[in-house]
Amino acid sequence: MPKKVTKAVIAAAGFGTRFLPQTKAMPKEMLPLIDKPIIQYVVEELVEAGIKDIIIVTGYHKRSIEDHFDQMSADLRENLEQGHKAELLEQTKSISHLANFAYVRQKGSYGSATPLLNIAHLIGDEPFIYTFADDLIPSEPNRFTQMMKLYDEFQCTILPCRKLEEEAEYGRYGVVSGEVIREGVLKLDGIVEKPGSKDKAPSDMGSIGGYLLTPEIFPYINKAADNLPVDKEFYLTTYGLEPMLKDHIAMYGCTLTNSKYYDTGNKLEYLKTVVDYALKRDDIGPDFKAYLHTVLN
Ligand code: G1P
Predict the structure, then answer these.
(1) How far, CA to CA in Å, does 86 sit from each of 35, 41, 260?
(2) Of the candidates 139, 53, 136, the residue with the CA atom closest to the CA atom of residue 100
(3) Is omega for the bond preceding 115 within 30 degrees of 0, making it cis?
(4) Best residue among 18, 42, 172 to mutate for probing ligand 1, ranked by most atoms within 8 Å of CB
């Protein structure tokens, strides 16, 4: 029987420099998408897929993330009760019950492999999800459910991927290579972190956020951490996934079905995300759409 995936790790220690000065005192993960912080959408997506334990890797400037997933204060509860705001009360109350939350402060070199070094002792011998707090990828079925289904079949690391369309994207994504074994599923044999241009890339399939990892990753990044060149970013891809593939450890890539990719970590994409999510809302969507027409015409 394949092991069930019940744990997830969210990397949330970054400074959010692309959003300064907004992120001087507020974590980028707490930027709002209408009335919820971006990180809550990621948490809800994980919970919908059956994740029970969520470890958020943070830093000293991230206290509001912990406060957000904590119980509401007595003052706020009283205020909502007295104002007869039952729906808001329920919504706000339910946040702390979404999952079992644990927080670990990030220590070590800058890069996507470091949060994993910091939480390895909490994972044990289980597969787990590792995701970023700024990649929103609404999919049908849920993206993590799609990946878990493939894990049940192959019992190895699963990387969600998308076809890259613009030349500039080759400087922003890890690019995978491998053999298509059926529609939407690739048996991987390589990954190159940010090749920079299409002609240097092994394919046009970019690896996107939300990895399903196995504990096999830990010895690779542990070993790499001891010998890391000082001027290099500690990428999970370069120091974990790529050497695993060189050692012929099985790994699959999948293109998610019915999915849309939002990288809320940059200003323009963040704005597009806000617009799309607002248009989808029943309460404000129609009025917002009418307003956009007046602005654009
Ligand atoms: C990270 C990964 C990269 C991946 C990307 C997806 O890059 O290193 O392989 O394609 O996330 O968003 P980052 O965005 O941290 O530079």
Answers:
(1) 17, 22, 33
(2) 53
(3) no
(4) 172
**Domain extents in the chain:** 7-265, 269-297
Eight-class DSSP state of 1? -
Q: pTM (2 decimals)?
A: 0.95
Helix (H, G, I), strand (E, B) or coil at 28: helix
3-state SS class at 112: coil
Cis before 243 (ω within 30): no
Are the CB atoms for 245 and 188 separated by under 8 Å?
yes
The pairing of strands 157-163 and 205-207 is antiparallel
As for ligand 1, residues whose beta carbon falls within 6 Å of it are 112, 135, 173-174, 193, 206-209, 235, 237
Low-confidence ranges of the chain (pLDDT < 50): none
End-to-end CA distance of the chain: 58
* 8 A C-beta contact, residue 143 and residue 260: no
Cα–Cα distance, 238 to 231 (Å, whole number): 14
CA pair distance 154, 47, nearest whole angstrom: 22
Atom 16 of ligand 1, nearest CA residue: 172
Residue-wise pLDDT for 217-272, tens only, equals 999 999 999 888 888 889 999 999 999 999 999 999 999 999 999 989 889 999 99
Ligand 1 centre distance from Cα of residue 206 (Å): 9
* Contact predicate 29/179, CB 8 Å: no
Q: 186 has which bridge partners?
A: 180, 253
Q: What is the CATH number assigned to the segment(s) 7-265?
A: 3.90.550.10
Round to whole Å and give the CA distance between 101 and 98: 9
